[in-house]
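Throughout our pipeline, every protein is held as a single compact record rather than as scattered files. The remainder of this section carries one protein's record, kept here as part of the documentation.

===
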Amino acid sequence: MHISGRYAYVTSNSGNRVDAVDISNSDSLSLTGSVGGLNAPQKCWVSGRYVYVCDTGANLFRAVDVSNPAAPLFSGSVSLTSPNNVFVAGRYAYVGA
């Protein structure tokens, strides 16, 4: 999970998706949008308009455009062996495997 602004981006390993949850009202959290089609996603990190996701089961590191949190879209990916952790700083993503 990673928080940016009013949204928490949560990986669902068993649901094979990333959810955008509106956390602006702690008494009434709401699911805003999701992107599915992942395979055992692990960690994620938000930077700018992108959520970077370790899609461990698919051996992919993915970028998801969340400029519209209600309709996240896959933006790109790179093949990596068992990515399981990520940290983004500036233009670089540091991915653990």
About this structure: The two ends are 18 Å apart (CA to CA). The first strand starts at residue 2 and ends at 4. Residues 8 and 65 are 14 Å apart (CA to CA). Strands lie at 2-4, 7-12, 17-22, 30-35, 41-47, 50-55, 60-65, 73-79, 85-89, 92-96.
